[in-house]
Amino acid sequence: MLHTKFSKVVLPIVVSFVLLFGASAFADLTIPVLAVSPSSQAIGFQGGTLHFAILNTGSGTLNWNVTVPKESTDWIQVDKNSGTGPQSIKVTVMQYADNTDNTRTATLTIEAPGAFSSPRTVTITQYGLLTPVLTVDNATVLVPSGGASEQTLSVSDTGYAAFDWSAEVTEGGNWLKATTMTDETSGVQYIQYSVDPTNVTSTRYGTITISASNVHDADGNPINATIIGTPLKVSVIQSGSNYSLVVDTDKFSLSNKAQSDSFKVSFKTDSPIAMYPWTAQVSAGNEWLSIPSGSGPYIGAMTLTFHVTANSGSSSRVGSIVVSCSGAADSPITITVTQAGTSNNTVIGANPGISTVDVPVSQTVDLAINSTNMHGDKPVYQWFLVEMITSDGTTSPVYVLTSLGLFDVSTILNHLADYTFSFDPSGITSIGSWRMSDLGLHVGDTFIYAYAYQRGGGDIIVDNITTINVTE
User: Fold this and answer.
1) With 0-12 CB in 10 A as exposed, 13-18 as middle and 19+ as buried, what is 368?
2) CA–CA separation, 410 vs 89, rounded Å?
3) pLDDT (tens digit, 0 to 9) for every residue of the chain, 472 residues total?
4) pTM for this one?
5) From the CB of residue 153, how many other CB atoms can be counted at a distance below 10 Å?
6) Greatest CA separation found in the chain?
7) Is 456 helix (H, G, I), strand (E, B) or coil?
8) In the chain, what is the straight-line distance between the N-terminal and C-terminal CA atoms, in Å?
9) Are strands 204-216 and 232-238 parallel, antiparallel or unpaired?
10) How far apart are CA 398 and CA 16, in angstroms?
11) How far apart are CA 445 and CA 411, in angstroms?
12) Which of 50, 231, 373, 397 has its CA 20 to 30 A from that of 341?
């Protein structure tokens, strides 16, 4: 299902960009802000293990302590009573000896001296024998910027009878993956999840939603009972990176001769020793663009040399090198290498992001489109968008270019998956050598084309946009 409506896309196409930024109200203050997640949890009469997270949504140092009320210490214990910074707290709940449908509740108090929003509370409710309760051992997962692979969550009915359950990622699907697994020995089902390394400095949030239904006994016979705790949402909180990948130059324009050039890779960080591993891989133009020292991995800041062979063709050509550092903000970075041909035509549109150029109406240029994306997504569908503005201000519809021709987006919104474009796997697709007059454009007109794709969660992203202003 396509979620974004292209009918909302107006010139400039820039307004269709999906910007993925996080923000904190206290980002510029050195004052800690106390938060807990989740603030309440339920568990059945059998007891077991729960977790909640203590978070600092501000800045500065957060020192905290946890207090279990005296009247509840005989059935609730925590593994940490004090600490510093974001941490996960393990809560052990004893079996409920009263075999009825009664409940008991304990309110834990979390205090952080000198922090905003202190104190906070976490409520634990334990149900009696006759109540089925959906329980997960960790309702808030804290993940470092480098990601996590094949971690597990235990899901169970800690109360009465049994039920069926399922899990799905409902937020963060482009970086968070979760699968229901079955233990080969015990036959017990559990959730296995993985988190990709982040490439931003802000914290990002994902959600795994667990839903339970069909209460039954050991023989599968249905039982009329209400399940407590469904749906249950597991929060996945990934820390932003505290270091950023930097290159000194991300665009090279070279003559048609064989030659070598270089760029410097470094890191923006407060760490006194920035010994982060990274790689550099030729992603387009492998037949003429190479890195003599290989793809790596390399460690820390250094200058990397690349080589291009002579270009004997009349047209210019475009290659790219992708520099990646797992867990670093602003990673990966694509370096575009444009090499002139014997005709020395200017190449337009090969670079990622937004670009605006002036092109004389009779000048021949080599048009290209970049189909890489800055979010690390694996596109489900991809489109080539085209739009024009004439010198009198008349705006054309937004068109989708396909092998069958141009189609007005507004007329095919319900069938966009049938109007995709086949881009070059290298990430840079040549459109050919053109004069603006060959495209029916005149002085004062504007020609815009863009790369768009649908990500796994259904959102449509317009990433790389080229605007050509036609001049004398």
Assistant:
1) buried
2) 52
3) 233 333 333 333 433 333 322 333 333 446 889 999 999 999 999 999 999 999 998 888 899 999 999 999 999 999 999 999 999 999 999 998 766 778 999 999 999 998 899 999 999 999 988 889 999 999 999 998 888 899 999 999 888 888 999 999 999 998 999 999 998 888 889 999 999 988 888 889 999 999 999 999 888 899 998 999 999 999 999 988 888 999 999 999 899 899 999 999 999 987 777 788 999 999 989 999 999 999 999 999 999 999 999 998 877 888 999 999 988 888 889 999 999 888 778 889 988 889 999 999 999 888 999 888 877 778 899 999 999 999 888 999 999 998 888 899 888 888 888 999 999 887 888 888 888 998 889 999 999 999 999 987 678 888 899 999 999 9
4) 0.60
5) 20
6) 88
7) coil
8) 45
9) antiparallel
10) 12
11) 25
12) 373
Give the position of tokens 């109200």: 25
Contact assessment for residue 140 and residue 52, using Cβ atoms and an 8 Å cutoff: yes
| Amino acid identity, position 316 | S
* Closest C-alpha among 78, 115, 110, 111 to residue 94: 78
Name 373's Cβ contacts closer than 8 Å, sequence gap at least 6.
Answer: 352, 379, 451, 453, 461, 463, 464
Burial of 115 (0-12, 13-18, 19+ CB in 10 A): buried
Region at 112 (left for phi over 0; alpha for psi -120 to 50; beta for the rest): beta
12 is written with which tokens?
């400039």
Helix then strand then coil, in percent of the chain rounded to 5, is 5, 50, 45
Q: Encoding tokens for residue 43? A: 């568990």
Residue 414 phi, psi dihedral angles, 5° rounding? -85, 0
User: 449-461 b/e with 16+ CB inside 10 Å = b?
Assistant: bbbbbbbeeebbb
User: In whole angstroms, what is the distance from residue 74 CA to residue 65 CA?
Assistant: 19
Strand arrangement of the beta sheet that strand 48-56 belongs to: 34-37, 48-56, 87-93, 76-78
178, 359, 330: which is closest to 268 by C-alpha?
330
Whole-angstrom Cα distance, residue 398 to residue 91? 56
How far apart are the C-alpha atoms of 65 and 195, rounded to whole Å?
Answer: 29
- What is d(CA 329, CA 49) in angstroms, rounded to the nearest whole number? 35
CA 330 to chain centre: 12
DSSP class of residue 201 equals: S
